[in-house]
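Hello,

Our lab assistant flagged a job as stuck in the queue for most of the afternoon. It eventually completed. Since we weren't sure the result was trustworthy after the delay, we are filing this so someone can double-check. Below is the sequence as submitted and the structure that was eventually returned. Let us know if re-running is recommended.
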Amino acid sequence: MDNMKLNMQYTGYTRHMWNRIFLFACLVAISVCAIAQEKGKSVTGTVTDANGESLIGVSVKVAGAPIGSVTDIDGRYKITVPSTTSVLQFSYIGYVSVQETVGSRSIINIKMKEDSKVIDEVVVVGYATQRRANLTGAVGTVDVAKQLESRSLTDVGRGLQGSTPGLTVTTTSGRIGTTPKIRIRGDQGTLLNEDSGASQPLILVDGVEVTDLNMVNPDDIENISILKDAASSSIYGSRAAFGVVLITTKSGQNSDKFTATYSNNFAWTSPIGLPKMAKSYESASMALEAWQRNNPNDSEFVGDAGMKWDKDAIERMKEWERNFGGMNLSPEMVAGRDFEITDKGLRFYRSWDPFDMYIQNGFIQNHNLSVTGKSGKTSYHLSLGYMGNEGVLKVNNDQYDRYNVTFKTETEIAKWLKVRSQLMFSRTELETPFTYSSATYDPLYYIYRWPVIYPYGTYNGQPFRSALTETTQANRNSDATNNMRFTLGATVKFTKNLSLEADYSYITNSRLRQLRGGKVTAIDFWSGDINNLTTYTASSYDKYDQYNYLTNHHTANAVLRYNKEFAGKHNLSAFAGFNLEYEDYNYLNGEARELLDPSKHTISTTSNNEGTRFVYGSQSDWASVGFFARINYSFKDRYLLELNGRYDGSSNFPLDQLWGFFPSGSIGWILSEESFMHSLQPVLSFAKLRASIGSIGNPNIGADRFRAIMSSVSSGWSINNVNMTTFGLPQTLAKGFTWENIVTSDLGLDLRFLNGQLGASFDVYKRVNDGMVVQGNEMPSVFGASAPYKNIGELTTKGWELALDFNHTFANQLKLRVNANISDARTVITKHPNRTKSLNGSNYEGRVLGEIWGFETDRFFTADDFNPDGTLKAGDIKYKDLDGNGVIDRGDFTADNHGDLKVIGNSTPRYEYSGRIGLDYKGFDLDIFFQGVGSRQIWASGNLVIPGFQFGDGVYYAHQTDYWTPENPDAFYARLSKMNQPSRYAESGGNYMPQSKYLLNMSYCRLKSLTLGYSLPTNLIRKAYLNKVRVYVSGENLFTIDKLGDIPLDPETNTTSGDGGTQGFGRIYPYVRTWSFGLQVSF
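-- returned structure --
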């Protein structure tokens, strides 16, 4: 501590000495100037915007001299100029720069106009920045201020949805703490390892990869660029085969002004798209009618989980609704009123609202504090962030928290040397109730699995067996992740045109996931006994499970840059460098069963009996290295050329295939600079034609594809009561196994009209995965092993993108901003060795990814279509006989012989679009953002979308009550039946085989966000030394237009394991609507 004090004292003394020396030098210089009678001139003034509001931080410089100043909180500046001929330059981000000759004036007030010329925007690209006007690749930018600020976002990924054409962001549910799926230009770029995100773009934050955007604080972000084609992303090598998301965080500033900013956001969420159950007697009547169709002599429906009823029970349900429906009754069930035990068994009559008992509104809060400034030669930026998200569970609620700390510095050691450092820390904590079911089906699935008469109350104070009871009694799981990054870097400037940048980053990511199981005690009425109070959960859930993950990542980058302008016409910039990455991953899981104390969850507090403790683990590592170079050349800022080359090595391949060279290039022609185009100005103020082509290697094709690995399996043979281990056959290998080669070509046109106020950008592209890794032709069974993987496939994506923007300031200073974009992509397997072309989900040449095969629905059968065997009746579905053979069938169920099947839809999002309208007027700002998908279909299964899909559940939903009866022949749903009803069709499923009528149309248009804000006038807040005070209200997911009709689904829902799977489609953690209030203050 004493040494620290001495060092601080010495540093302070040194700084004071240097200040005195500098002051003395200034006095000497002034004296010399006075002697030479070269007196300086003092100029003052105020800089304002078009509304007369003071602009803070405007740069004021003397042209051609190292003299500068910055406007203060009142927009005032003071500067000393050498002479009356000096020219002052005023510049401010987002405003048109102004130049003024001093002349005889000592007071110069400046009014700056906002700059609508987007072509002058500086865009972050691979290892560099470029003026948008000079870009030759396909690069999209995100308006961070509008897209991320003033919104109650829990992660960056969801905030990027609809931000730029070609960027697709999808989510499977509204579950908190989950990461959305992000894709660039198409949903899939390769067929292997897709479950591990093989087609995911490379996401870089300040040049270093992050695997989970949940770790990034949206408030820390300065700008975001989306690199889409090979010409723009190939410089990052094989990890960027499917595009790059470049995120740059905020840094310190060059001026000595200290700035502190605080912002908050408080949001209240409410679930949307929730299923509505049919009334008790409606659901029971439907189940009984469907049951009796298959079993006409039965008078009773017998389902799962103790669900039984007949017509008498249905009448009792109606009676209960008449007498007690809508009343706020105690959860205690009353025998004889709510249920009874008859000679036929246990009968329930009371209706419940399981949603109201299980779901509530949620709450989100965000707090961010940052300080930015410069002390001496060191600029700094420190930010702290917290986000808390309370979920929507009414009992044993889930909670997700994120903590962020970022500290960045840059110090000018000498005019030729700058050093920088960065510390980023992020911690996330997720707490959820333990689930007594598989990972696929959570409690919400079971809440909606049973009819509303399922007993969710108590009897004699004891609960019944249910998902609600399990959640209430459950212990809490925890999942905590710590991510820390430390970066050191330096820039060495050898000459005016030559510099070297070098950075090293170390990232460590640790995760501790703890599952705290236990036992659930309740009335297990499934057996029909109302007094059966027991612990009914399986013994395998009485456990403590601990998962430990540790990842260490090292990244080193070095870039040598050269820039030169020749003869005022030729501009050359070039750089060359290398990138080195190494990562090791360790995983360890320990599971211990038979808890000794249900309140203590540790491995040591469990039984040590044989067969109660298990250990699993794995370890892996990988390395990659790349050498790269880029040359940019422009002639007269009119003809543009960019060449890239990257030589990559990856540990994912055998020694003779470690390395690959991947080139790319692009050209641009700014037509508006040609003399023959000048007559079109200012109507056409800018026009640029650009084209690019390039290749990138993809190493992400799964682990050990080139190694003959033998996996260990249990043999089933027991020796001394031990199941012996054996090994399977090794994987067969093919020679020449190497990189997938992703070749992308792009043609683009950028236009601006009306002095830059109106802009349009259009791209058409083609991406080919040449040499895609697929499994070879099926081997004969006598071979004894599966076919090897080879580079013999090809996947082709074709698409287009269109972006429009308009900016205008009216005479009354009303500012209007309008942005819109739309994009589309289609991916086809253009080469594949599979010759059977089976339609059971296999890949084959000619298959369009996402395509859905099914029958074309004709109509309902009528009495005139009487079927002699009696299996088909009026109200059943009639399919079209497309092949005219008089039989409805699937042929061989192959693409070449598909019978009456046809492609009825595609699950890949098509024609994705978004739009934004912004208004600013006298401190008020309004932002309206909508987003949607023009075409997307899903053939889903499960009780919510197919009545009676899991028939034993006995559950139907309100929208399914519109089913065919002789009195309702124009119904939406077919005549009631069991899914395995007899039919004349070769396949089971009868009325609900994949078909056009019940194909879900998931297209939508959603009011994604609406924000209304007000910034207090500068003249009111500057007395309190405040730069900005803004308050706002904001809403998310406020309104949706879709084509789902009465089906209670959110159109963004997707099928996936972990969110109900295919059978639980729609019965998932709900999406939410959000209203929030926020405050932004800077001083």
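-- support follow-up --
The delay was a queue issue, not a problem with the job. The result is valid. The chain has ten helices and 54 strands. The first strand starts at residue 41 and ends at 48.
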